[in-house]
Amino acid sequence: MTVEPTTTAARLIDRQPGMTAAELVGHLSPPPQFAGASLENYVPDERYPSQAAAVEAMRTFSSEVAAPVRGLFSRRAAAPVAKPGVYLDGGFGVGKTHLLAALWHRTRGRKYFGTFIEYTAIVGALGYREAVAHFRGAALIAIDEFELDDPGDTMVMSRLLGELVASGSRIAATSNTPPHALGEGRFAAQDFLREINALADRFTTVRIDGEDYRKRDIEGHAVALTDEEFAARIAAETGGVTVDPFRDVLRHLATVHPSRYVGLISGLDAIGLTDVEVLSNQTDALRLVALVDRLYDAQVRIHATGVPLDQVFPDEMLAGGYRKKYLRATSRMIALTTAAN
What we know:
It is a single chain. With 341 residues, the chain is α/β, with parallel strands linked by helices. It is 40% helix and 14% strand. The protein folds into 2 domains: 9-18 and 215-339, Rossmann fold, CATH 3.40.50; 46-208, Rossmann fold. Strands 3-4-5-2-6 form a 5-stranded parallel β-sheet, sandwiched between helices. Helix 2 (49-66) runs parallel beside helix 3. The longest helix has 18 residues, at 49-66. The protein starts with 8 loop residues before the first strand and ends with a helix.
């Protein structure tokens, strides 16, 4: 379809974000919707005692982050040292990100908060040594949606976290997968068991049970607009908005490093995608997941025509090792297209 340009509509594919190392790392803070997250305003579901227990576990870990590290050559006997990391394991919508953000807010000093994808993307963009130099000595490294998608990520993150822990940093992470099961179904995990176990052994695992508090129906549908509805929605946008064919956006994402997707959508209130179609390339699918994560964090609305965005991942992709990524992206696209209406 062809959409007549408006005074506010531009093209996402014309954006080429250039970001310095300091800017890339400087974006590592909780999304705006968690700006006020605290342990006090997390409301545990009484039906699931593990939620209240998780709050207390994070409170305890917070005090450990604040505690000074005893010198290696202290003459006094050192107290038993807790593991340097805490790992929140639970399903969608049980408040893991809220608790992680609350810990970040309670922590003094230099601290970082980002998704696993963001950290690995930054390491890829800056190079390993420069990334270590930026993160070394931070009081807290908070990693949301921890996941290992390939052997390279496994080895890099194992090495990175090892160096950061040695510099005195504490690590807090969330995931839908217990740490010893990271990588299952994605690659030959058995061949990298030592690295996976090295990561897992740095964490105290805290299980959080419960139902999705957002009550989003993963079987629902993202909103797909007619051409006329799309044009009207774009014309009604008063802030920053872009309009592009879906296929062109996928091609453009291949030219932008995922660590810079946050810059790609900077200043936008909404994006328009025309002629959405089912994905056939897994690399395109994973890039779309990374973009959707950034759109969701920034709460950028999506207007779209063509195939409903919740149907872009074919069954064979959903049956593979990236299933949880695709389901997360599906849930978020449903939310962002619904918010746009």
